Amino acid sequence: MSEQRIDRSTPVLRSLAEQTTEELGGRLSVLSRQKHDHMTLDRMLTELPGAPGDEEEALLNRICRLVFSHAFAEEAVLWPALRRALPDGEELTAQVEREHQEITELVATLEATGPGDPTRPELIARTVEVLRQDVRDEEDELLPRLQQEVDTGTLRRLGVTWELVRRTAPTRAHPIVARRPPGNVLAALPLSLIDRIRDGLDRTSRRLGPSARRALQSSSQGLGRVARRVEQSWLLRRGERSDTHVPREWRPR
Ligand SMILES: [Fe+2]
Ligand SMILES: [Fe+2]
User: Fold this and answer.
1) Among residues 71, 92, 171, 228, which one has the fewest Cβ atoms lying within 10 Å of its Cβ?
2) 179 and 66 together in one domain
3) What global pTM score does this model have?
4) What is the extent of the structural domain holding 58?
5) Name one Pfam family in it (predicted).
6) How far apart are CA 66 and CA 69, in angstroms?
7) Per-residue pLDDT at 51 exceeds 70
8) Which ligand sits closest to the CA of 166?
């Protein structure tokens, strides 16, 4: 019988999912904050398949508002720290940036399709699949690797900065903006402002009668067109890796 060899030179990584808040560095740690958001996302993703029309739209909305600001803060604060801390940080973060890019493109496509569009269920299923993959990559590999390299004080400082950026980040899909500094940092101010005004208009419109609702919705769509013009600036694409926007194997049939 052949003896199984275990490589003892590489310490075993423990997923964030298996660790307590104390082990993750306390409530302020970026690891606890990440896990908290991932658990909220998981609950919404579980409710999504088969949710009736209006509920599906509302859930998708909440998922997007959580996911885009969360990912923006990862790309602006956390992945640059990971690249500084790990020798293979460049490749590790490029992989999750490609996942984030695919999610952004899927949501942009979903926004362009109507509720009755036949490709919608497939688009939603793929979005859920990539979101779950992204969480597993972060909780099982990237973030435990960061945990091995930095002390608890650094995890807490990163947690506070990440949270500040997350609370002021863009909340919508911006598929052509760079996923790395300086492009994404330059995009933050104009696109956050536009996205958050749109979020307010959309929230208010849901409480109003049909004609007032239509007026607010058309203002929100007008701001969406302004955002697309802002995205075109070459400054907002600076810093991007050429292989982040890769052609997808998957396309709706
Ligand atoms: Fe995350
Ligand atoms: Fe992510």
Assistant:
1) 228
2) no
3) 0.89
4) 22-169
5) Hemerythrin
6) 6
7) yes
8) 1
